[in-house]
């Protein structure tokens, strides 16, 4: 019983870290990344769809993202959607291809981005700690229902704490790496 709780908790914590990594991808660094445009939605025949569903997004070089619309009439709409997004990007149309140069980030903007990365890290840690609390409550319930002994409870809580510590250390390492990436000029 307690093994199931530990296994489920670890799986959920792993999912939290995957979600956190996806959130980190969306935080802008000085380098270009196709993942930056994941949040951009385009008006496609009356419905808002993610940019990746109406165009091919790829890198030209370290500072330029290219967007190749699948339909010729979508170019202007895509350009407008990127310009109006809160990413501060200025796309330039070149025939069928839309080039999105990454402007160099100011020191102030870099500091804002590191704060954002830290906040995402804190949110991920809170999610992991909530999972720990839920797991410990599950173990306590097993003891209360006489399905596990108090020794099992102590052992399980110690193991759940080790799993939690490992996941929090991983989150801290990811935040530190992202900060390093953002601050690199």
TrEMBL record:
Residues 20-183 form the Ribosome recycling factor domain. Keywords: Cytoplasm, Protein biosynthesis. It is found in: Cytoplasm. The keyword Protein biosynthesis applies. One of its GO terms (molecular function) is ribosomal large subunit binding. The keyword Protein biosynthesis applies. It comes from the Bacteria. GO terms for cellular component: cytosol. InterPro entries: Ribosome_recyc_fac, Ribosome_recyc_fac_dom, RRF_sf. One of its GO terms (biological process) is cytoplasmic translational termination. CDD domains: RRF (cd00520). Coiled coil: none annotated. Belongs to the RRF family. NCBIfam families: frr. Responsible for the release of ribosomes from messenger RNA at the termination of protein biosynthesis. May increase the efficiency of translation by recycling ribosomes from one round of translation to another. This is Ribosome-recycling factor. It comes from Simplicispira metamorpha. The lineage of its organism: Bacteria, Pseudomonadati, Pseudomonadota, Betaproteobacteria, Burkholderiales. The gene is frr.
């Amino acid at each position: 019983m307690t093994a199931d709780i530990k296994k489920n908790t670890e799986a959920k914590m792993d999912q939290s870290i995957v979600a956190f990594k996806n959130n980190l991808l969306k935080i802008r660094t000085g380098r270009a990344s196709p993942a930056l445009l994941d949040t951009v939605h385009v008006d496609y025949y009356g419905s808002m769809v993610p940019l990746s569903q109406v165009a091919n997004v790829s890198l030209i070089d370290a500072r330029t993202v290219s967007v190749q619309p699948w339909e010729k009439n979508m170019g202007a709409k895509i350009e407008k959607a990127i310009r109006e997004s809160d990413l501060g990007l200025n796309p330039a149309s070149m025939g069928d291809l839309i080039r999105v140069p990454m402007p160099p980030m100011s020191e102030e903007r870099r500091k804002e981005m590191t704060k954002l990365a830290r906040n995402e890290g804190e949110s991920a840690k809170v999610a992991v700690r909530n999972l720990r609390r839920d797991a410990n409550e599950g173990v306590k319930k097993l003891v209360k229902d006489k399905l596990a002994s108090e020794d099992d409870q102590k052992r399980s809580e110690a193991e759940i704490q080790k799993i939690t510590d490992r996941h929090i250390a991983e989150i801290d390492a990811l935040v530190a790496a992202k900060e390093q990436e953002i601050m690199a000029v």
